[in-house]
Amino acid sequence: MAAAILTDAGRGVKRLLLLGGGHAHLFVLEELARGALGGADTTLVSATRRQVYSGMVPGMIGGRYRLAELSFDLPLICRRAGVRFVHDSAVRIRAADRRVELNAGGDLDYDVLSVATGSTVQGSDLPGVRDHAFTVRPIDRATELTQALERAAAEGGRISAVVVGGGAAGVEIALAVRSRLAKLGGPGRAAVTLVEAAPGLLGGGAARAEAVVRHALQQHGVALRLGTAVAEVTRSAVRLEGRDELPASLVVWATGAAATDLLRTSGLGRDERGFLLVDNRLRSVSDAAVFAAGDAATLSSYPATPRAGVYAVREGPVLRANLAAACRGEEPPRAYRPQRRFLSLLNTSDGRAIVSYGRLATWSRWGMWLKDGIDRRFVRRFQALER
Predict the structure, then answer these.
(1) Largest Cα–Cα distance of the chain, in whole Å?
(2) Could you tell me whether strands 112-115 and 290-292 are parallel, antiparallel, or unpaired per DSSP bridges?
(3) Residue 38 — very low, low, confident or very high, per pLDDT cuts 50/70/90?
(4) pLDDT at residue 336, rounded to an integer
(5) Would you state the pLDDT for residue 307?
(6) What is the C-alpha to C-alpha distance for residues 47 and 45, in angstroms, rounded to an integer?
(7) Distance between CA atoms of 163 and 235, rounded to whole angstroms?
């Protein structure tokens, strides 16, 4: 069935279109560089020229890493892999026509489409968020935050930073902001507050890990406001529901993932939140010519799978194998089944990391050694494609 849908008898060579430079697509580019994807005519569209590895972003914000240590030169990798690179963003998927419209104008046709464009943040439509808050979704926006921290420190005076979102990303970012500001101007000049609408941190699913996180935040002077929803962000404050207000010279919006307009308006099968719904082959449930991975996708068989980088990385080899098959007009051979639990490593920006797995959690320097080794190994693997 899928082979018939994907056949392009008039041309013989499949047109593979990759939207986004997400983690899963790095595995596809690696396969293309090996010449092992069936001779597909491939194009990658990305709004950014450098793809950032999400696992090391808090370390960059905290001053541990430079951008070059956690990013990939997409145009260079594409050139090495024989892939056409288009520096633009997709604004509409016209699945019925097998065509994608681009922001700069014009469109691209495809026989096989793969989407790894990531996500945006929840609550970005609240008053003032888009105008006054920094985000790290899409992940390349993190560089804007590091520049803002440096400007704030250079201006002198006391800095009041508010991080909204008490998940793993929000915790790491709050600690990274505190560390970076302390290095730039001394700890006495900076006040950092972490705000979360829920009554607990980390989604409330791991009591031991949450206790260790609370201890780390307290030790580093990060104030907590739990069970508190944000109503508005202004130029100088975060207004909370109930009319309370937090002074804020800098706001970071680090809430959970939300579907982008591209996904929500695609016309493809989606879940109730607007993410593309895929089967265990990472193939759209409504169109056999479309695949999706990472934050852009929801697994129909495992809809509660967290939107964490570890899952996008595990999906990468499955995606590349199934795209190769699709480009040959064959049924995708590999199924993806997410692991029930995974090792969580949270960088606390003090040379340590919180390590948690199931009910176990600890905070140590060896944890950061482990995290640093895993992250650097992943980056080295794909930076090798630049050479």
Answers:
(1) 69
(2) parallel
(3) low
(4) 95
(5) 86
(6) 7
(7) 15
Specify the amino acid at residue 322. N
Q: Where are the beta strands (DSSP E) in 54-149?
A: 71-73, 84-87, 90-94, 99-102, 107-109, 112-115, 120-121, 133-135
Surface-to-core class of residue 31, CB atoms within 10 Å of its CB (0-12 exposed, 13-18 middle, 19+ buried): buried
Q: At residue 23, what are phi and psi to the nearest 5 degrees?
A: -55, -40
pLDDT tens digits for 354-386? 999 988 999 999 999 999 999 999 999 999 999
**CA torsion sign, 60 to 64 to 68 to 73?**
negative
What length is written for the chain?
387
Residue that is written with structure tokens 């006040």 in the block: 191
Give CA–CA dist 311/116, Å, rounded: 12
Q: What is the Cα–Cα distance from 201 to 214, expressed in whole angstroms?
A: 8
Dump pLDDT digits (tens) for 65-99: 999 999 999 999 999 999 999 999 999 999 999 99
Q: Give the pTM.
A: 0.92
Could you give the CA distance from residue 163 to residue 194 in angstroms, rounded to a whole number? 5
At position 171, the amino acid (one-letter code) is: V
Which amino acid would we find at residue 341? R
CA angle in degrees (0–180, nearest 5) for 209-214-216: 95
* String of DSSP letters for 247-314: E-SEEEE---EE--HHHHTS-S-B-TTSPEEE-TTSBBSS-TTEEE-GGGEEESS-TT----HHHHHH
Q: What b-and-e string marks burial along 142-177, b requiring 16 or more CB atoms within 10 Å of the CB?
A: bbebbebbeebbeeeeebbbbbbbbbbbbbbbbbbb
In one letter, which amino acid is 331?
A: E
CB atoms within 10 A of CB 182: 21
Q: Which helix (H) or strand (E) holds 32?
A: helix 23-33
Neighbours of 95 (CB within 10 A): 19
* pLDDT confidence bin for 269, thresholds 50/70/90: very high
* Residue whose structure tokens are 């902001």: 177
Give the span between the Cα atoms of 192 and 249, in whole angstroms: 10
